[in-house]
Amino acid sequence: MSNSKVVYEGWMVRYGRRKIGRSFIHMRYFVLESRLLAYYKKKPQDNVVPTKTLLIDGNCRVEDRGLKTHNGHMVYVLSVYNKKEKYNRITMAAFNIQEALIWKEKIESVIDQHQESQATNGNKYLSFEYKSGVDNGRNASSSEHDSQFSAAEEDDSHRSLLRRTTIGNGPPESVYDWTKEFDSDLVNQNSNNQAFSRKHWRLLQCQNGLRIFEELDEVDILPKSCSRAMKAVGVVEATCEEIFELIMGMDTTRCEWDCSFQYGSLVEEVDGHTALLYHRLQLDWFPLFVWPRDLCYVRYWRRNDDGSYVVLFRSREHENCGPQPGFVRAHIESGGYNISPLKPRNGRPRTQVQHLMQIDLKGWGVGYVSSFQQHCLLQMLNSVAGLREYYSQTDDRPMAPRIPVMVNMTSVSSSSKRSKKLQSSSAHHRSPSLDQIHAANRNSVLMDEYSDDDEDLQADQEAMSSAFEIEDKRTGYEEESTDQIDLSIFSGNLRLDDHDKARNCWTLSNGNNFRVRSKRFCYDKSKIPAGKHHTDLVAVDWFKDKKRMDHVARRPGCAVQVASDKGLFSIVFNLQVPGSTHYSMVFYFVTKELVPGSLLQRFVDGDDEFRNSRLKLIPSVPKGSWIVRQSVGSTPCLLGKAVDCNYIRGPKYLEVDIDIGSSTVANGVLGLVVGVITTLVVDMAFLVQANSIDELPERLIGAVRVSHIELSSAIVPVLETDHSDSLKSENIDI
């Protein structure tokens, strides 16, 4: 890195398209300095040469290219280039809009500084953003300008307009922008366009904390079966970006807040701001007698300069999205969302969400049964209440939410056509599987820029892709074989028995029973079977006492002491069960040594804050009553965030005392489990959570299965009470 001041830095996505036509994305570390934008394969240290650089001055420009699709995932894309070097550009992307907007703001601030510096010297930079014709004198939006004035087409004859720009051709002509106020001239020029005359609303009702409005004006040019425009207005305690990302998703996450959503997919991506979608509605008005409805519509979005978002809908026909068997194709005349920021209250963000819909549900009886149309329309508008409840029922805010996956319907359609040709003799055509959909998506090319990486980078990316494919095929992360630890020297009071019907015992749990983050998790959130453990489970103790048992590793003759004598390192998990009689189940995991710089070594030698943020437990109840299996679940849990954990670092061990009674929820589940513990088979996997590419894939510290435990078999341990207690509050370096 150079000696210039670093303005901003972090991991972002490099995306593009190779000359052979295949699109790619890969993670790169971007660094913005006062005069330079550069990216690296890894986080730079010392004088590492960057993969690519771009000199930043007042002639630079930032293009907001909107949302791009890659293998079913969506990324928010920015392109930075210098007007005078039109072929030298850097294209970067983020999985979340917040991060992309931060980078955009930082880069623009550096450009502004150069322009101001030049202006003080008597020279002025030319501006090079051009207002789209659809603006017509209104305040320019930050995402509706045409890309026609790109770097390849700009010339010095254009003046007087803003520098900042985004790509996109503005809303399609057929899409009505109901969020804008139009003047009388526009009304006169578009007298046949009902959207421009829409001004008058009346409050129809208040429902689920929303104000529901209905348009007053009748629209003669629309069929009688088409409803009047209605809109719902509500306040959601979330940022505009969070709500926007949720609204743009068409996967199963939408079912958690939109009760009218059944299924959705991407038909065609027009540009970063416009796409055609297929959408099946989940309507509950006499479903046994009324055919379900589906939609094919164009969706356009933009981000305004005040931080608000506009999403517009209107139905459109498409060759790859014809009528579907068993569905009536409804028609959206106008619709969408207007997401506007409000002043925070009590430290929480607030956003006003308006959802408008004017729809013709079609069908022979719609024009005669008005209650059907209004009932279904209100059901769709209630998605605003769903958004509000979605965010109000949790205090957690995802730091960087990813834009949900969208399956590409065009690829599915193409795959189906090819399949029909290959299987023309078949009487029935089966729908493509999810694997076929993903395979088709991998072959689709949706990026619009060739890679500007060097050939060695392309080779590196191909090698990375090959490595990913190999990883998918294997069952877990495997290491080179090493010398085995002699397990016969260790013992605990709970016996080891690997028979299926064994009782009051423990055995090793297969790592492939647990799914952990893969090497590609940062790209696609994929997980793989965990495979081989970091350490060996050598013994399990089952203790009881009248008081809580802390620092059990100090007990003479325990597995930790034996391992230490042999020069081995131990990690001990002490699960503390409170009650009139306190119980502790202690698991001893042993390894020959910790690999310096590894995630496990950093966890062992880190501070408690780091440990609490990374220690993860994956539970499972393969055998037990339904209510216990549902209560325990199988969702990974960050132990340090859920319960109190005390870390004791000894010369050759780390003990983690996990106080289950410190959590009301965990204590409640525990009370249920203890009552039927003799009937249960429980699997537990311990691991350190991996958050970055360098740390992935995740590996288990170890995993254990305990079967049909008897409370009466626990013993009272004899614990030392000497100076070793001081280790509770100190870390002793190895």
From TrEMBL:
Superkingdom of the source species: Eukaryota
Q: Which residues form the START domain?
A: 201-363
Q: Where in the cell is it found?
A: Endoplasmic reticulum
> Which of UniProt's keywords are assigned here?
Endoplasmic reticulum
Q: Does the keyword Endoplasmic reticulum apply?
A: yes
Gene source species = Salvia divinorum (Maria pastora)
User: What protein name is recorded for this chain?
Assistant: Protein ENHANCED DISEASE RESISTANCE 2
InterPro entries cross-referenced by the UniProt entry: EDR2-like, EDR2_C, PH-like_dom_sf, PH_domain, START-like_dom_sf, START_lipid-bd_dom
Span list, region Disordered: 136-168, 409-437
- The principal localisation class reads endoplasmic reticulum
Q: Record's Gene3D superfamilies? A: 3.30.530.20, Pleckstrin-homology domain (PH domain)/Phosphotyrosine-binding domain (PTB) (2.30.29.30)
- A Pfam match is START
> GO cellular component annotations, sorted alphabetically?
endoplasmic reticulum
Q: Where is the composition biased (Basic residues)?
A: 417-431
Q: Can you give the residue ranges of the PH domain? A: 5-112
